[in-house]
Specification:
14 helices, mainly alpha, 369 residues, two-stranded antiparallel ribbon
């Protein structure tokens, strides 16, 4: 009897309970349509800004799922440069961050391009530019060699949660997977295709490392196809991180299924996660909409470069703590007198106001629109 799903004959003939999936899929599609409709009503600049915020979030959270914390400033700067966006406060980014950004942008900005072995190898090389994963040297830009197991527990008490496809079957299984991703099946909803692709790829586990991140990238590429848009207005990886335990449980249960390759459990989890991601996107979009409203209100207001820098930091939520003239001077690299003049100028224009309380540490805040 098969222990893992891939050990079944014709294991990729996936089945599911359509009664349990169809209502959930319809709800997700409705949320997608409403979100895309809301965002297309904005101009190009704000769609691009929402994309910048969501891809930044996606990369940060996808890496965090694997236990790696990246610098938000570096990720955001790397994306902005590659998208040609004029963003204040850009910083230099590390080589590994640039690689992750290149992979994600290749997937989402070129979502219509076919998935190929060469493209996958390029993504893998971008993830591991030094040829190392942590302190371990790995095979980069090629399929793995040897046994791949997911293990927990200390030495002598190891528990094997999953053993992936055997080494000699990886390439034929990947060839079949790539052909399926590139094929058109009008009867298969594109969101369901994104869900299946994620599970299928992780089940094969074709690389020494980076399989989870590449699986989520393939899902993002197929979700971009389902949206028919290179703009990204929600983050699936951010939601997966919130639901990490359920994510791994759904993967494990689906990979151990032995009845008709039934993946209903996985599809239910994926669609619910996507539904929650679409709902959670409101917070980021609200920030973008608020910023759009602010600059539309002040389109004819004379504001100098230092003031623009600080206002954008406050509107983006990047300003930490209370706004004081000393912080203004430090960030803008200007004198205290110049900082005070800048702040007073914005107060006179009705943009900033003094918080209650005074003294040496006077704090300022944005006037609510």
């Amino acid at each position: 009897m098969a222990k893992y799903i891939y050990q079944r004959k014709n294991w990729t003939d996936f089945t599911w309970d359509d009664n349990r999936i169809s209502v959930l899929l319809a709800h997700v599609r409705n949320l997608q349509g409403r979100l895309l409709g809301k965002m297309t009503s904005l101009g190009f600049d704000y769609q691009a800004e929402a994309t910048l915020e969501n891809i930044t979030l996606d990369i940060l959270k996808s890496s965090e799922i694997e236990g790696e914390k990246l610098s938000k400033k570096q990720v955001r700067s790397s994306i902005a440069r590659r998208l040609g966006l004029e963003v204040v406060g850009l910083v230099e980014s590390a080589r590994n961050i640039d690689g992750i950004v290149e992979m994600m942008l290749d997937a989402t900005q070129r979502y219509e391009s076919p998935l190929t072995e060469e493209r996958l190898f390029g993504w893998h090389a971008a993830l591991f530019p030094t040829g190392y994963s942590g302190n371990y040297k790995i095979n980069v830009a090629c399929y793995r060699k040897g046994v791949m197991q997911v293990i927990s527990g200390g030495f002598g008490h190891e528990k094997v949660h999953y053993e992936a496809v055997a080494e000699n079957n990886v390439k034929p299984e990947m060839d079949k997977f790539i052909n399926w991703v590139n094929s058109e099946n009008k009867q298969l909803d594109s969101v369901i295709k994104a869900a299946i692709a994620h599970l299928w790829f992780v089940t094969i586990h074709p690389f020494d490392d980076g399989n989870g991140r590449i699986a989520r990238t393939i899902s993002d590429m197929l979700l971009a196809r389902s949206d028919e848009s290179k703009y990204r207005f929600y983050s699936m990886s951010a939601q997966i991180l919130k639901e990490r335990k359920k994510y791994y449980l759904a993967l494990e249960k689906s990979q151990h299924t032995t009845e008709n390759s039934d993946i209903t459990i996985w599809l239910e989890w994926f669609l619910n996660c996507l539904k929650n991601a679409l709902t959670a996107s409101d917070k980021i979009l609200q920030s973008v909409l608020q910023k759009a409203k602010f600059w539309n209100e002040h389109a004819k207001t004379i504001i100098n470069d230092r003031q623009k820098l600080m206002l954008n930091k406050m509107l983006d939520g990047d300003f930490i703590g209370k706004l004081q003239s000393s912080k203004w001077a430090k960030i803008c690299k200007c004198s205290q007198d110049t900082a005070i003049r800048d702040i007073k100028g914005l107060i006179e224009k009705g943009i900033l106001q003094q918080e209650e309380g005074g003294g040496r540490n006077t704090n300022y805040e944005l006037v609510k629109l």
